[in-house]
Write a structure and sequence with these properties.
Distance between the termini: 35 Å
Order of helices and strands: EHHEEEEHH
Helix content: 25-40%
Number of strands: 5
Strand order of the largest sheet: 1-3-4-5-2
Radius of gyration: 17 Å
Largest sheet: 5 strands, antiparallel
Shape: globular
Structural class: alpha+beta
Number of helices: 4
Strand content: 25-35%
Mean pLDDT: 95
Amino acid sequence: MFEYNQEKHYPKETESRVVIRFQDCDPLQHLNNAKYFDYFFNAREDQVPKLYGVEVIDLIRKYKAAWVVYNHNISYVKPAMVGEWVRIMSRIIWHNHNTIVVEYYMTDDSKTQLKTVLWSTMRYVTLAEGKSTDHQGAVVDFLKATSLDMDISDISIKDRVKQLSLELKKV
């Protein structure tokens, strides 16, 4: 279970290094569009427990609520190719009392070329009724400790692609 420690620094971003598998690619040797989701979700699922000491399933069991995706917004910038090593980053960029937006992005191994950006918007809902509910307890602490809390009200995914591309070029 997540226990917030104000003395501890919590990274705002997860990062994984993975290879693009042959079985996940199309005949042109590009990562299949639908497979990006698997790579993104698996990378976050692997990294959150390591970085924050929390298994999301424990939060689900304790609070009897879970996040349910109601919107994906994805931009494919450059293809990921079979056998290529890539970096996958994820972070909660915004949250309120019952919703989060998780940003995932993929780069080449050297983190100089943006490949894909995904925003997943999720509502926190009760398991029993499937109705929206407020974040509570350790969930609130987790979000406060790990979220960037960006102002995304006036930014599109296209704008975000430009921002991330510029950031990568500066590195």
